[in-house]
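Sample A.
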Amino acid sequence: MNYRNLGETGMRVSEISLGTWALGSEWGEVSEEDAYATLNRAVDSSVNFLDTADVYGDGRSEKLIGRLLEDRPNDEIFVATKAGRRLDPHTAEGYNYHNLSAFVDRSLTNLGVESLDLLQLHCPPAEAYWQDETFEALDWLVEAGKVKHYGRGRR
């Protein structure tokens, strides 16, 4: 397996990652046993970068990854999760500290970790990238120790 530095995060991640949308079981039934076996097979194959979101199976995917992290504490596994798709209505104004903090707290619980490796905004309206409040909220989450890194394009 080849590995690369992920931006300036200090994380050295596998070039092949595992996306876990299907493990949420919304696009067809995937048993918990099969989903968990898939995660373990990926890590056994030297994949150390997992992609998930709080909405994949209403948190099911994150909870399965949390179980994996607990069962494999000696493996270096990095998790990227996403937040924002729970907003209703899904507007740029919803990408604020109150909402993002609540989404992050739920992901922290689901994953069983104290800090998220990487948080990404999940399909936000383009305007969310141009409002200072979005990035102030993300910076506060980093300062609070809840998020180590967040995905951010150049502004």
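Sample B, a different protein:
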Amino acid sequence: MPLPTASPGERALLVSVAFGHTRKALPRGAAQAREAAAAGPRTSLPTPEEDSRLAEFRELVTSAGATVSAELEQHRPKADPATLVGSGKVDELSGLAASTQADLAIFDHDLSPTQLRNLEDALPCRVIDRTQLILDIFARHARTREGQLQVELAQLEYMLPRLTGRGKAMSQLGGGIGTRGPGETQLETDRRRLQRRMVQLRSELDAVRRTRAQQRQRRESVPVPTVALVGYTNAGKSTLFNALTSGQVLASARMFATLDPKLSALQLPSRRKVLLSDTVGFIRDLPHTLVTSFRATLEEVRTAEVLLHVRDASSPMREEHKAEVEKVLAELEVLHKPRLEVLNKVDCLSDEETAVLRAAGNGQAILISAQQHTGLDTLLARLDEELIQDPILEQDFRIPQSEGDTLAALEAGAVIRERAYEGNLVRMTVAGPASLLGRYRRFRIAGA
């Protein structure tokens, strides 16, 4: 039984609902001017913050392949338990959906099973909520077997409590000799089938988690620290990953282009090597089922020594996005980890805006443009300073010139501060990772 989603080319009616506040009234002339300038059917005018939220909502819908046919916004003191928006607004929605020939109505809010059932009965089109929309995008972008398993589990966890009310697509009373016990309903059969599939998926994902744990243990046997990129969706994490590693990860303006973690080696200015991990982006009101299902993938975040929090410097909602990311990091219990703030997309800002941002960051935030490859040297130097594992040491060595392999290893993995030749010996002052210098301690000059 597939989860109802948006399909490419479908016309979508977007419904945005805000609770707990009212908007100040505009003067009559200003209200008329703004209403005339507004594109498409709307019932109210958004504040700048709401504009950004609506733009994000539209981008989600576009990422799912649908076309926006109309938008409707509502402000209410609290949610209506039956329909979320109230009976009057449901009538307005029904007329708007019919007049714009919408194939589905998408709510930028989670709907309870009762609300979903009532809205489907009242509207002339299908109804999905924000969680279903995000799950659909994840399903489209999952490429690996692991990603597909995680998305399917999240979809089933969402669907299970909502089986009641899906009566348009299935009969409530099943028939057939030998297929079910006496009096068992189709609903009970479907619920049990979903539960069996969820058990199977969790078992397969546990196997994935064990495999990942074994891979991490092998990596940890060689002291190469991991650095994880985290951040809001579409902040430019994959573009930065490619810029730092010369990788070929898909960098797309579409939301959630990256679902499966990517690892690549990265050499820092000290010649120390780290593993850089690109992870799935976070979003406002990220469905809890996704955080749970993607826990195997997000283990890379939990085991990383340093987190690079990549933020979109050009977004008016960057502080709100930061709070949302930190909320998910708190769920993953990694807020205690060292974290560098990386403000990306500064090429989209004016010089004045960049100066203000730099001053506000107090020298802590690192301003970069992953697209233009600017600020990356500063980022790598700060990352070098932040790493504690396998610290950088400076030591003096006296090495015979015949030890060509040793000299080559130090040249490749460390920074040579000084070099002098004493007959057949090379005297060197070297700064490099403790693990590397420790291999050649027999050549170290005692007391130096």
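Observation for Sample B: Residues 172 and 186 are 5 Å apart (CA to CA).
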